[in-house]
Structure formats: structure tokens, C-alpha cells
């Protein structure tokens, strides 16, 4: 591997793909966003075109930031060892089985590391936080779907198959509707951007396309006091708080990070969410767990994806500079 302090980070979501050139401290040199085009089965084509555009832009600017690898965080269940998509919901049709690592290594001739998109979000919190003792926390991403990443004692919890952390498919209603995963009353059915858009459309008597902009529209109407939007968002907050309370009781985390497009609602959402979650949590747990947005907002997944290159790859010069008593130097 070429010695470099830079890597490409790719965050593949159900709606869009964020691609950035990142240095070893998590600084973004340049980045672009392209649509996922999942329905057109163009996820990998869009990813490749986006990386090529980023590299061309970097070369044109002559900034000498040559990447030493590519890190990818992708929606779906990912085989970390092979960099292949094990399974994905219908939000990403025909995506299961995609050998992301093999495709990108063949295209770009550099090492590629692939993990679930919320696991890499967790990496950005673990290695770039100013909190040196942050070793137990949970990340939840509310986007087109709902994903999760669990960190205990400084390590990602992967489980026996390597696909642990599917928080979006915890049941919060045992008599609820059937989820596309086959489960009953899954958290994703109530808290994803797709769900928020769909339920608002139903309340307004029209079935709208479940796209991110319509979710933002619901949030905007909620903040303006719209009755239907308030009903949708209150149901979302109650379902999410029930799920978070269960996670707090199970893992006793120092914090829960809520990311994804829905979290862009900001402090009004977080204020209500904290109140409802702590109402459902035993008092002994409440003071120990904070509920916060990601350190770097919607770019956290892209940054965390790039961190894989420095953590798992052979960029020893960068990694040596990152290490301090067994930990990476916090963001500063």
C-alpha cells in the first residue's frame, strides 16, 4: 500500500451516496454527493462514477492528496471479511450478493474495506471523539431505513455471523404490521424517513413517493405545528424511545448517537426524544446515558468509512501518528 495520510470514504445509503477524500484526522479535503439510483440497479455504477469524479477533481487541483485506499460504509448486511453484501431490503433491489470490495479493487487498484454504514458511523465516534474514555455507546441511523451499530469496551459488536446491530428490526409492537424483512412491528416501520413520509401521505389521504425530501417536508410541517405532521412525529418519537429504552437497559451505554436524515430535525426532536426515552428507562440508568447527534452530522458515515483504511490497512505512517497509548488521537 502506498504511504499516504489520505483515504476515500464512501457512504452508500438508500437515497444518496456521499464520497469524500479524507485525511487521517478526519478532515474532509473535498467531497461529492450522487444519487444512489437503487431502483435503476445502478448503486455500484454510481459509486464508481462518483469516486472517479472525485479523483479527477483532486488531480485537476494538484493537491497531492493521493489516497492509499477506499473505505465503504453501505446499507444492508455486510460480510466484513469479504466486503460483500449478504442481504438488503427491497429499498435496495437486487443489491444482495454485490461484491463491493472486489468490484472497487478491480476498478481502482487499491485496497478496499467494506462494512455496514452504521458500523462506520460508530468508528467516527470511537476514534475521533474528544472523549478519551468513550468505549461503550450505540449509534442509530434514521434514514431511508434504520440501522444500528453497537460498541462495547471499545469494540464493535458483530455477532457470530458478523451482522449484529440490526436495531431497525427490533420489534416495538408485537401486534404491529409486517415489515419487509418478515418481522412484526419493527422499529423501522415507525422511525425511518420512508415510514414518516408514507404515514404522512396516508393521513393526508394520498400515498406519496417515500423519498427523503418528503420526510423533510413532514419535519418542517411538524415544527410549524401542523396537526397531521405532529401525530406522525409523536408516533415516531414514542416508537423510537421504546426501542432506545430497551437498548439502554441491555447495554448500559455512555451515549446513544442518533444520525441519518431524520435527525436533521435538530434539537426539537432530541428534546422530545430524551424526555420520552427517560420516561421509559429505570432511573438508575438515566444519568449515565446521553442522547446526541453525530459528531460530524451527515458526513460522519463518510468519515468513518475512510477511517477503516487507517485502522485496518497498512498505512503505518498515518496509523502511528494516530496512536497514543493504544488509542487514536482524538479529533482536534
TrEMBL record:
According to its UniProt record, which protein family does this protein belong to? Belongs to the ROK (NagC/XylR) family.
Q: Which domain of life is it from?
A: Bacteria
Molecular-function annotations in GO: kinase activity
What is the originating organism of this protein?
Paenibacillus taihuensis
Spell out the InterPro entries in the cross-references. ATPase_NBD, ROK, ROK_cs
List keywords of the entry alphabetically.
Answer: Kinase, Transferase
Annotated protein name in UniProt: Glucokinase
- Per the UniProt record, one Pfam family is ROK
